């Protein structure tokens, strides 16, 4: 299939591009490079620089490349930032996403795989969370992703644009080519590894008075390559005519606390990681752990690389390789 991948220059997008190409698909990456990196776009993909708010460029690209399916990942994705800058989140995640859907309608393109988030659930009363559990986002990030899921439902009903919405839990880890490099970095695993590498003086734990086993937040970490594979499975099931679906994308189990992630990072890197306790971060639910039964049952998806040690080790190797590359340059 010829797949149009918005946000394909970003961390997860670049790995999804790799996985699509490895599965025999043609990939057209569409990215405005506001967060992504031009050199993260894999060389097998065609690159179009553009904004998701730009209807004419979107429509032109969908037509020119005779696109058959869309994976929509271009978005603002930081919980804390979304609380302080909700306008940016509504503009990109809702308005931009709707412009894309309009361009798809005009070009006659369906289906779409959408990057949603566990943040749609908010403080869930029940763990692990199932897709049928109540949704109640605690921050604009989750709220905007939920608004888009609702739009997808109505666009499917009225215009026949079928979709899979993947509610990501915590993507982490790296492949040999693609890893996490946000600027500024806000995610836990790359931050603690930066401390291990001596690039930052200390890690900060955002709150240690949550109702969890050690007082720090529990998250469900999934290897980015496993996560990317779920996109390919979703796309291929839609191509076979499957109906629109929403799937959680995590590993389930007990999840890991912030403190446990730091311990594993110490162990994997063999380095000291000084830690300071800080206040809670706005908008953070205490626990987010997926039930991944639905996607396992319907698409046969099982995470293969998502042991926390393996995730952290892959991120650490990627950082080390990048650092030695930098030193050699
Ligand atoms: N976190 C932390 N210190 C940091 C970054 C994150 O304690 O420097 C915590 C954060 O509060 C959350 C968890 O680590 O409970 C994962 O945060 P991250 O930003 O990696 O992902 P999110 O869950 O927001 O998608």
What would you note in describing this structure?
- The chain has 329 residues and is α/β, with parallel strands linked by helices.
- The protein has two domains: 2-171 and 222-249, Rossmann fold (3-Layer(aba) Sandwich); 188-218 and 252-328, Alpha-Beta Complex (UDP-galactose 4-epimerase, domain 1).
- The chain has ten helices and 14 strands.
- It has a seven-stranded parallel sheet with strand order 3-2-1-4-5-6-11, with helices on both faces.
- α1 (11-22) packs across α7 (224-239), α2 runs parallel beside α4 (86-107) and α6 (188-196) packs parallel to α8 (258-269).
- The chain is globular.
List the defining traits of the structure above.
seven-stranded parallel beta sheet; Rossmann fold; binds uridine-5'-diphosphate; globular; UDP-galactose 4-epimerase, domain 1
SSE layout:
Layout: E1 2-6, H1 11-22, E2 26-31, E3 46-49, H2 55-64, E4 69-72, H3 79-84, H4 86-107, E5 112-117, H5 140-159, E6 163-168, E7 170-172, H6 188-196, E8 203-206, E9 218-219, E10 221-223, H7 224-239, E11 245-249, E12 256-257, H8 258-269, E13 275-278, E14 287-288, H9 293-299, H10 308-328
Parallel strand pairs: 1-2, 1-4, 2-3, 4-5, 5-6, 6-11, 7-10, 8-13, 9-14
Antiparallel strand pairs: 9-12
Uridine-5'-diphosphate (UDP) binds next to α6 and β8.
